[in-house]
């Protein structure tokens, strides 16, 4: 296959950008805390599963320290912490804090799923795989918003939650079953059956729309092939975090203890 002409590729990218912007704004558009417009650039999710003892649904945070507020390299202590009962709140990585919701003292360096065991407040302890056997849900707990010269990590607003979970995101493509293997065993143990299970519904829908729109963006087939190649490639698994937060793109996360998707 010939490489596309640079000008034709640039025109194709411009056409695709123009076509996808309205849908991208509907999917990810938001407002930053200072009132300026922006997009949700990352969505952090946590696994939720029922206790096999008492049936209570529990957020399975791997650690009390969920994420720093600023990027790691800025070395600031402000962080989002999760109490043992799964409430998320702002605190510091270097000092304990009582949960504002339930009052439970929360130590930032606590691991909640040591040796892959999750313990419910009823005292029942079970391996994460057993919890996943009844199905894991993934709940949005934090969003990263990006605007002009500004990024912020925050608890999601009601409209951001509604946008993440909207019924309009109905992807249709099937990426095939995850086959057994050394690297995929952890995924299968935690309830993922097909490759598309690794991605949130909204992200899958938007990627599918990108692929559909790509066909229409150039009469030069080498351009449409080049535009569709990055997103049509098989998903690369970059380190699932089965103990808790989010699914696929851990390597892209800029904060420790979290992983995020879009
Ligand atoms: Zn329980
Ligand atoms: Zn609490």
Tally of discrete structural domains: 1
**Number of separate strands:** 12
For the record, give the distance between the C-alpha atoms at the N and C termini, rounded to a whole number: 32 Å
Q: What value does the average pLDDT take?
A: 84
- Structural class label: alpha+beta
Helix content: 25-40%
Oligomer state of the chains in this structure: single chain
Question: Topology, pairings included?
Answer:
Blueprint lengths: L5 H23 E3 L5 E14 L6 E3 L5 E4 L9 E5 L5 E5 L4 E2 L6 E2 L10 E3 L5 E3 H6 L3 E11 L2 E5 L3 H8 L19 H5 L11 H14 L6 H12 L30
Antiparallel strand pairs: 1-2, 2-3, 2-11, 4-5, 5-6, 7-8, 9-10, 11-12
Bound molecules: zinc ion (2 copies).
Report on the architecture of this protein.
- With 262 residues, the chain is an alpha+beta fold.
- It has one domain.
- Helices cover 26% and strands 23% of the residues.
- It has six helices and twelve strands.
- It has helices at residues 6-28, 128-133, 158-165, 185-189, 201-214, 221-232; strands spanning 29-31, 37-50, 57-59, 65-68, 78-82, 88-92, 97-98, 105-106, 117-119, 125-127, 137-147, 150-154.
- Strands 1, 2, 3, 11 and 12 form a five-stranded antiparallel β-sheet that branches.
- A hairpin with a 6-residue loop joins strand 7 and strand 8.
- Helix 1 packs antiparallel against helix 5 and helix 5 packs antiparallel against helix 6 (221-232).
- The longest helix is centred in the N-terminal third of the chain and has 23 residues, at 6-28.
- The protein is globular.
- The two termini are 32 Å apart.
- Bound molecules: zinc ion (ZN) (2 copies).
- One zinc ion is lined by residues 51, 53-54, 56, 120, 122, 124.
């Amino acid at each position: 296959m010939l490489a596309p002409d640079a000008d034709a590729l640039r025109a194709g990218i411009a056409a695709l950008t123009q076509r996808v912007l309205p849908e991208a704004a509907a999917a990810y558009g938001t407002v930053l805390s200072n009132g300026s417009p922006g997009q949700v650039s990352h969505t952090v999710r946590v696994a939720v599963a029922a206790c096999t003892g008492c049936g209570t649904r529990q957020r399975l945070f791997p650690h009390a320290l969920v994420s720093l507020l600023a990027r790691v390299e800025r070395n600031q202590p402000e962080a989002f912490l999760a109490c043992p009962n799964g409430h998320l709140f702002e605190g510091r990585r270097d000092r304990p804090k009582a949960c504002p919701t339930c009052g439970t003292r929360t130590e930032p360096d606590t691991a909640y799923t040591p040796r892959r065991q999750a313990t419910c407040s009823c005292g029942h302890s079970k391996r994460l795989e057993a919890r996943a056997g009844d199905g894991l849900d993934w709940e949005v707990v934090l969003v990263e918003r990006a605007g002009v010269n500004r990024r912020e990590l925050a608890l999601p607003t009601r409209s951001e939650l509604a946008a993440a979970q909207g019924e309009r995101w109905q992807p249709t493509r099937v990426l095939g079953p995850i086959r057994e293997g050394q690297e995929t065993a952890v995924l299968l143990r935690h309830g993922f059956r097909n490759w598309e299970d690794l991605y949130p519904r909204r992200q899958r829908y938007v990627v599918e729309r990108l692929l559909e729109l790509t066909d229409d963006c150039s009469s030069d087939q080498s351009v449409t092939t080049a535009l569709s190649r990055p997103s049509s490639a098989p998903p690369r698994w970059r380190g699932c975090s089965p103990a808790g937060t989010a699914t696929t793109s851990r390597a892209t996360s800029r904060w420790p203890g979290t992983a995020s998707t879009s």
